[in-house]
TrEMBL record:
Belongs to the MqnA/MqnD family. MqnD subfamily. Pfam families: VitK2_biosynth. It catalyses: cyclic dehypoxanthinylfutalosinate = 1,4-dihydroxy-6-naphthoate + dihydroxyacetone. Pathway: Quinol/quinone metabolism; menaquinone biosynthesis. This is 1,4-dihydroxy-6-naphtoate synthase. Gene3D superfamilies: Periplasmic binding protein-like II. The active site is at residue 152. Substrate binds at residues 55-57, 113-114. Keywords: Lyase, Menaquinone biosynthesis.
Amino acid sequence: MTLSLGFSPCPNDTFIFDALIHHKIDTEGLDFKVSFDDVETLNQKAMKGELDISKLSFHAFAYVYEQYALLDAGSALGFGVGPLLISKNEYLANHPDHIDATLRVGIPGKYTTANFLLGIAFPHLVQKQEMVFSAIETALLNEEIDLGLIIHENRFTYMDKGLHKVMDLGNYWEQQTGCAIPLGGIVINRKLDQETKEKVNRVLRKSVEFAFANPKSGIEFIKQYAQEMSEEVMYKHIDLYVNKYSIDLGTEGRKAIDVLFQMAQERGLIKPIKKDLYLIPY
């Protein structure tokens, strides 16, 4: 059986999926047709129901949960892993209370969890420009935007380009909730039969466990899609986003996701949730 699968070219995703798509583990008779896309493209594809399995921002999941269920394996949650709001203007970095509604902010997508967190911390920032996450630093340097919301490996490169941190939105979330920050998860189309869905969850967990046991096994595959990232930065990225929650959400991981969705509903950012989010209910 061949299933369509979408995930990002970022090191945390290629690290997680390497063993699965290259059959380094028993895939229980499953094959995968893979597409690599940035997170917002994956979000948009899910809105159209294009993929059987996909990486997805948790914010975007709120719009497709009736069509997709969340797997327990493969998610990106953690502490100290949130998006950063940065600027070329050092004054803004030192005086975040002076940020006003006139400022232009580049975001990595409307439906990203990063944008949701930005809305919680700075609800008055409404002049948002959507762009591919890797283009945000350049837009700041060219003064096309005043603020940039960065995710993924850009956390490790912005300082080298003379840019400044205004706020770590992950830290902000942690202070507000005490929970790990839910960034993205792996969802599966509910139209598939239950046996297949549970099989995918098992196989993905095995893939993550294989990656942890053999961290260098997928190095060439990871490098292939890591742009010009050094190996050191690649593994910093992996260490940041791949952890115990990637093997299994567990009670803590599910609580963090539930809090995110509850806050979003309370603020009117998403409609009330009327269906269980998870493939395997509590």
